[in-house]
Q: What sequence folds into this?
């Protein structure tokens, strides 16, 4: 525990975008009234899509499975409200994927809503003792059954990460409470309001993975979250560590380096260096899945940005539309310019507000014209700012300009594929060159070769 | 020029064919690639025509950019950093300084607009880079240089040094130094050490030889070693902007603090100068002490304002340091072994040639190691 006081653990380079957390950080989690309908996408995670396991016009209750996982790296999806299914259709998610969705029309009477719902998801007792009685396999299985995936954004199926790995034993369980994306405060509210659920989930995940140490990393701009979790963690052996506030502190690779000083191999996983990273919201969902047998039907989403009239943190059913959440938060202001699924650094522009939110939607950020204003693009002045910003120590300008010139080979010599598209370089570039977008084009060129 | 394959391919070709960049390679289907470029242009003026609801432009992440940091802003910073130097130059050389720099400025603006119009590209005067080139060139001239030196030097700096290479971002050589080298070779008499001295002048400092020339003359005699304090303050003879080490330090540190110049470059220059001058001292190659080398001539002006030109210096921190160190080493060696008393210009130009190589050598190792090869 001695390292718990060194507050400056971090990774090299990175950027300091404006945090803008003040918009929503003071807003306690509110429960969204049950919407009239939801659309449950059959692909909300990284991996194979689900297969629908309900018919049209079938009565479903909250928590009923509507899509079945089809392979190891996949995760089932569940009804998030009581109601009646409609014919499956296709929706375009903000990430550009067209996915099959199962619409559910809400029943007039909901079995659970309001405060009861909140208590069911996060409230009540979260035991810290006796968790070892669970079989490690049973924990992973419960997470699979409940459709738990990484709630930080990548939505990687959690049961995969919880499974014990005989070849590379897991030494560290790293719990990600950084929430390094500007604006978003959903994880923050969770940490402040329900730290016990997070600790219980952490202990379960630790037990499942067989990790020797469990460390929760939180950026030092969230002192209240650190204090709350430290208090909840007392006597459990879970360490709560304060990290420097810097983007992208909460990215798996950077977090692993900051917390245990190990470099995750390029294109590899933290697992290869003996670590597993789980988001705070994810472990809370794991706790609920294991202890209460409840599926992942709801999540906390921050609706924020200067373009939103009343920023809020909401507990919402998966599958509710962006439009509905925005309306619930008082709608958009006159100067709203862009709706983003997630945060402004890595989030996707939402093209159709009728799209459903998924398990991986951590927030809705509405930026104003002022926010998204960019200075005019000039030629690259080779200043090297992008190099100074890149957390992976790449040379973004070389990669991007080679991609623009259609020269994938040169881009490759500068490690094009290693780029995680975090956006630091483009943020820092004084010439406003769309570096990340050019990198993406380079990757497409490479894969088309 | 010593340009290895990659820059020719990736950069020099890049900026121009903006309109149709990736389609050719991205296999036939363009929808994947298309979203990129079209967006780059319309983005500026027509702000979302429709209301916010679906008027949402689908723009790629990141959605924020550091607005405190723009190309223009960096250039303005350089001008602010140069202010103390300009003030000192006026204090020391009076009207001569104003006229010299003014001539360069006017010529630069005219040349840039003519040349860019000829090459059919928009006039990039707005980015201030021509202004900086002009000011630096003006500051590096002798106070006595006739008007045509400033005019021709600037024309060459902008015309050949920059525009011919394709404009800002494409040139290999520091444009101001290209201009200066040209006039130095063409008009040796009015640019040589002798040009700095005129006994009949009312300005006191110009009645004496420049410190670096004096030291060169007096090599071995120890007689005429310039005293350090005037050298530091700048009350000595020399090119207009180079005399005051103090002014260069003040402006230069401002630039580094603002991160509009990379500190690694001046650090490299100064570090190598100390090292090489110290060593040369040890083995009695030079009478000039380390502070003489540091404060004399254009060393600090070069370290903070000339070598730091981002376009003509390397990209990575390590590369920048090496680049600076190369300049420092060359300056000391040149001052000792060559016939010229002052070497900053040559050193910068020589190291400019090496930038592509330095960039090649200093490709940083990615965190997590190189991309694993698929087999
Ligand atoms: S930050 Fe922008 S201008 Fe500077 S080197 Fe990188 S791409 Fe070029
Ligand atoms: S987007 Fe890629 S190149 Fe740019 S900073 Fe992030 S990892 Fe580096």
A:
């Amino acid at each position: 525990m001695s390292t718990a006081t060194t507050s400056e653990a971090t990774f090299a380079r990175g950027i300091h975008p404006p945090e803008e957390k003040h918009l929503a950080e003071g807003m306690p989690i509110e429960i969204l009234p049950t919407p009239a309908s939801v659309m449950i996408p059959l692909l909300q995670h990284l991996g194979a899509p689900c297969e629908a396991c309900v018919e049209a016009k079938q009565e479903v209750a909250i928590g009923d499975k509507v899509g079945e996982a089809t392979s190891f790296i996949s995760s089932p999806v569940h009804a998030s409200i009581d109601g009646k299914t409609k014919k499956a259709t296709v929706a375009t998610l903000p990430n550009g994927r067209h996915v099959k969705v199962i619409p559910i029309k809400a029943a007039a009477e909901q079995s659970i809503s309001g405060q009861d719902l909140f208590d069911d998801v996060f409230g009540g007792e979260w035991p810290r003792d006796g968790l070892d009685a669970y079989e490690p396999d049973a924990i992973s299985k419960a997470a699979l059954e409940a459709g738990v995936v990484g709630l930080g954004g990548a939505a990687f199926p959690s049961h995969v990460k919880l499974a014990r790995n005989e070849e590379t034993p897991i030494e560290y369980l790293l719990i990600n409470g950084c929430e390094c994306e500007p604006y978003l405060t959903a994880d923050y509210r969770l940490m402040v309001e329900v730290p016990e659920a997070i600790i219980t989930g952490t202990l379960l995940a630790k037990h499942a993975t067989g990790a020797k140490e469990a460390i929760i990393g939180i950026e030092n701009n969230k002192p209240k979250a650190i204090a709350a979790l430290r208090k909840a963690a007392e006597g459990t052996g879970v360490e709560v560590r304060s990290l420097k506030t810097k983007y992208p502190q909460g990215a798996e690779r950077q977090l692993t380096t900051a917390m245990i000083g190990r470099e995750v191999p390029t294109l590899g996983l933290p697992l290869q260096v003996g670590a597993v990273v789980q988001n705070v919201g994810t472990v809370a969902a794991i706790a609920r899945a294991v202890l209460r047998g409840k599926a992942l039907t709801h999540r906390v989403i921050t609706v924020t940005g200067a373009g939103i009239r009343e920023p809020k943190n909401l507990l919402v059913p998966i599958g509710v539309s962006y439009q509905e959440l925005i309306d619930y938060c008082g709608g958009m202001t006159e100067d709203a310019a862009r709706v983003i699924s997630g945060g402004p650094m890595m989030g996707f522009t939402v093209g159709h507000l009728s799209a459903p939110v998924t398990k991986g939607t951590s927030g809705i950020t509405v930026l104003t014209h002022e926010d998204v204003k960019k200075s005019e693009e000039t030629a690259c002045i080779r200043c090297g700012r992008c190099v100074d910003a890149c957390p992976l120590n790449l040379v973004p300008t070389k990669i991007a300009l080679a991609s623009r010139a259609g020269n994938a080979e040169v881009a490759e010599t500068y490690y094009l594929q290693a780029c995680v598209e975090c956006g630091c370089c483009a943020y820092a570039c004084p010439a406003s060159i769309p570096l990340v977008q050019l990198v993406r084009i380079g990757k497409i060129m490479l894969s088309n070769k | 020029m010593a340009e290895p394959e990659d820059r020719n391919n990736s950069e020099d070709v890049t900026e121009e064919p903006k309109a149709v960049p990736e389609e050719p390679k991205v296999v036939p289907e363009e929808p994947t690639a298309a979203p990129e470029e079209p967006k780059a242009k319309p983005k500026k003026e027509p702000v979302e025509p429709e209301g916010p609801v679906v008027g949402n432009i689908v723009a790629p992440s990141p959605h924020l950019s550091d607005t405190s940091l723009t190309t223009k802003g960096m250039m303005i910073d350089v001008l602010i950093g140069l202010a103390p130097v300009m003030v000192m130059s006026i204090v020391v050389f009076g009207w001569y300084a104003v006229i010299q720099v003014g001539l360069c400025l006017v010529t630069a603006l005219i040349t840039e607009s003519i040349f860019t119009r000829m090459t059919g590209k928009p006039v990039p005067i707005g980015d201030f880079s021509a202004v900086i080139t002009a000011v630096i060139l003006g500051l590096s001239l002798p106070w006595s240089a006739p008007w045509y030196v400033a005019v021709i030097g600037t024309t060459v700096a902008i015309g050949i040094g920059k525009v011919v290479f394709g404009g800002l971002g494409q040139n290999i050589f520091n444009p101001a130094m290209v201009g200066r080298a040209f006039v130095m070779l063409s008009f040796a008499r009015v640019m040589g050490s002798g040009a700095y001295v005129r006994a009949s002048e009312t300005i006191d400092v110009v009645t004496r030889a420049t410190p670096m020339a004096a030291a060169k003359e007096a090599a071995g005699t120890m007689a005429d070693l310039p005293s350090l304090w005037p050298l530091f303050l700048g009350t000595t003879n020399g090119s207009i902007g180079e005399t005051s080490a103090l002014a260069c330090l003040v402006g230069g540190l401002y630039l580094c603090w603002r991160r509009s110049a990379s500190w690694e470059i001046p650090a490299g220059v100064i570090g190598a100068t100390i090292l090489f001058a110290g060593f040369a001292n040890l083995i009695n190659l030079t009478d000039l002490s380390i502070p003489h080398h540091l404060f004399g001539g254009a060393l600090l002006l070069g370290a903070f304002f000339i070598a730091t030109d981002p376009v003509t210096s390397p990209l990575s921190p390590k590369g920048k340091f090496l680049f600076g160190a190369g300049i420092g080493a060359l300056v000391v060696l040149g001052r000792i072994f060559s016939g010229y008393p002052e070497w900053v210009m040559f050193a910068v130009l020589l190291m400019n040639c090496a930038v592509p190589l330095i960039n090649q050598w200093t490709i940083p190792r990615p965190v997590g190691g190189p991309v694993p090869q698929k087999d």
